[in-house]
Write a structure and sequence with these properties.
There is one protein chain. α1 packs across α2 and α5 packs across α9. 38% of the residues lie in helices and 23% in strands. With 271 residues, the protein is of the alpha/beta class. It has a single domain, classed as 3-Layer(aba) Sandwich (Rossmann fold). Strands 3-2-1-4-5-7-6 form a 7-stranded mixed beta sheet. The chain contains 9 helices and 7 strands; from the N terminus they run αβαβαββαβααβαααβ. β2, α3 and β3 form a beta-alpha-beta unit.
Length: 271
């Protein structure tokens, strides 16, 4: 569902770039720290870390080779590097990083507890791990409108609605953090707004096949696709003419500190 860098940039990259500054402010990075950006995508958060912090080293990891190649080309430099990797089986030694960020990833990971344990394992004692996920239930206006209209046309689409995904509701990230033994767990909700020049600017990224919504559109016949486009346009614009649009999105964020014994019991993994 997420594999092509150019498609991701048009579909979700512009949202993640707006979220990144607030996420970074929520967590913080001190001069000289080693930072991991897990699920780095096309490098929006890594670029912000490079440009606005004095982190000693920033490492981005993503499972999609095309994303990693894009990030290397656009963001990589002497302080910032990228690698292909699985969040549930990281190649780094224990206690490598001071801060580990995971932005817009964990809800897409099967068995996210394994990914959190790996985040803990590669973090130094007293270091911090943090995550952000979209509030798909009612906090992501664009996707809420999309799935409402998709389900109105095809009730079977409800099974694909991202509102059904794990970790996307109030308190779920914090519960996972506490379950995995993190200390000083703190969660919050962040809000952003994205401006679109017209309805085509909204609709065209859905045609690129990225994410659950893009994959759903890619599987539709041309007549069903046109019907969904028409309903979404009416939902966002009413009966009026095309015009610029502003849509809001909310994300849940969590952070917690790693205790001395949590995740550092000898061996490569605490699983």
């Amino acid at each position: 569902m997420f594999s092509k860098a150019d498609g991701y940039e048009r579909f979700m990259g512009r949202w993640s770039r707006l979220l990144a500054p607030q996420f970074l402010s929520f967590v913080g990075v001190a001069p000289g720290e080693m930072v991991l950006d897990l699920g780095c995508g096309t490098g929006a958060l890594a670029a912000l870390l490079r440009d606005t912090t004095q982190a000693e080293c920033i490492v981005g990891v993503d499972q999609a080779p095309d994303y990693v190649g894009y990030a290397r080309q656009k963001v990589g430099d002497t302080r910032t590097r990228f690698a292909v990797g699985d969040a549930r089986d990281l190649s780094f030694p224990e206690a490598t990083f001071d801060k580990v960020f995971s932005s817009l990833l964990l809800n897409f990971v099967s068995q996210p507890s394994l990914a959190v344990r790996e985040m803990v394992r590669v973090t130094k004692p007293s270091g911090v791990i943090a995550a952000a996920v979209w509030d798909y239930s009612d906090g992501m206006e664009l996707l809420r409108a999309f799935w409402d209209e998709a389900v109105a046309l095809n009730p079977a689409a409800e099974a694909l609605d991202e509102a059904r995904m794990q970790l996307c509701r109030r308190g779920e990230l914090a519960s996972l953090w506490r379950q995995e033994g993190l200390n000083e767990v703190c969660d919050d909700q962040l809000s952003i707004s994205l401006e679109f020049s017209n309805f085509s600017d909204v609709w065209a990224p859905f045609l690129l096949g990225q994410g659950p919504a893009g994959a759903y559109v890619a599987g539709l016949r041309s007549d069903a696709k046109a019907a969904l486009e028409s309903r979404l346009r009416r939902r966002l614009l009413g009966a009026g003419p095309d015009k610029p649009l502003t849509l809001r999105a909310k994300a849940w964020v969590v952070k917690g500190s790693v205790g001395f014994m949590v995740g550092h019991r000898g061996g490569r993994s605490a699983r």
